[in-house]
Specification:
CATH class of the largest domain: Alpha Beta
Number of strands: 11
Number of domains: 2
Shape: globular
Strand content: 15-25%
Radius of gyration: 20 Å
Strand order of the largest sheet: 8-7-6-9-5-10
Structural class: alpha/beta
Number of helices: 12
Largest sheet: 6 strands, mixed
CATH architecture of the largest domain: 3-Layer(aba) Sandwich
Order of helices and strands: EHEHEHEEEHEHEHEEHEHHHHH
Length: 330
């Protein structure tokens, strides 16, 4: 008997083989809906729309700490990035180093989002700038935010203002009513409003002029490659069909492998044409994105500590609380 599952995914190289039907799960018939992360997460949090979906790791930990057990995590991590290297600042705000963010007005799409969690964690642990040192302005309105869907309230020592509906982070950065913003990207939709291109704006600059160098420094020091999105399955689906967990892990791992094969093909093109020197072959051939708990335990445990340190969770959420028990040895 075939199990029909509805999936909510964000289109990227590691999910595209599933979205396009190029990899399939035995005995599972999937229907896939795609969208912006904010939209997919919101639809799942508010309406339980999908049997399986990508999910903000920060939000998932907050739900678990609050006793909301609708979803069970699967150790599938589809996006990663050195988020703090993407902070943008106004040139006239006198922000030359991370320490200069103290006392500044900082835009954030959503305070609890995982990218913001990692940025605040890096600012505090690496540069001594705590969340309480900044004044946050949040773009998403409560009725559309992930925080609104799970009852988020501001940590007591942090100032978070609501950006009015008639404006947004991009426009406020250009106008000078914000000094900086965390992980900005323009894509207006039902929950995000910014569309201005800040990267090419003459009044805006990256906090880290060489973001690649800062990412390398951070990785060499910490060994952390921050995880953004995880994957969840509805608890009632997992309990009725426990066998589906292994099948889903297989299909996501197969999609991940397909993405790596495509990456290797592009590397081969560059090597064969001389656009990359031969000594790049080995480091570029090393897979960096792997699924499973043990390969990612250090990163997951740091995210859980950051969540507690920043007042998002009342306690440090244990790894064994997040993921399906059958995945704990993975």
């Amino acid at each position: 008997m075939t199990l029909a599952l509805r999936l909510g995914l964000i289109d990227n190289p590691r999910t595209r083989p599933i979205i396009e039907g190029k990899v399939t799960a035995k005995d599972i018939d999937v229907t896939v809906a795609t969208g912006d992360p904010g939209e997919i997460f919101g639809r799942q949090l508010r309406d339980d729309e999908f049997d399986v979906s990508e999910m903000s790791m920060s939000t998932l930990m907050m739900m678990i700490a609050r006793g909301d057990d609708r979803f069970i995590g699967l150790p599938i991590f589809t996006t990663r990035r050195f988020f703090h290297t993407h902070i943008m600042v106004r040139r006239d705000a006198k922000i030359e180093t991370p320490a200069d963010l103290k006392g500044k007005r900082v835009g954030v799409r959503e305070f609890q989002q995982t990218a913001a969690l990692w940025i605040r964690g890096a600012l505090h642990s690496e540069f001594g700038v705590s969340p309480a040192d900044m004044e946050f302005w949040m773009e998403r309105m409560p009725e559309h935010s992930h925080g609104g869907a799970i009852g988020f309230t501001s940590p007591p020592d942090v100032v978070i203002h609501q950006i009015p509906k008639e404006t947004n982070i991009g426009d406020m950065m250009i106008a000078g009513t914000l000094d900086a913003c965390l992980f900005y990207f323009p894509n207006r939709n039902s929950i995000n409003r910014s569309i201005a291109n800040l990267e090419d704006h003459p009044e805006i600059k990256p906090l880290f002029p060489d973001s690649v160098a800062e990412g390398i420094r951070y990785y060499r020091k910490t060994g952390i490659y921050p995880i953004n999105h995880g994957v969840v399955i509805k608890r009632n689906v997992a309990e009725r069909h426990p066998w589906a967990i292994a099948r889903l892990l297989e299909v996501f791992n197969e999609a991940n492998a397909a993405a790596d094969r495509a990456r290797m093909e592009h590397i081969a093109y560059h090597l064969e044409t001389g656009l990359l020197p031969p000594e790049y072959r080995k480091p570029l051939s090393t897979p960096l994105v792997s699924y499973g708990i043990e390969a990612n335990r250090k990163t997951l445990e740091m995210a859980a500590r950051y969540s507690h340190d920043q007042g998002l969770t009342s306690r440090i959420v244990g790894i064994d609380e997040i993921f399906d028990p059958n995945c704990l040895g993975s």
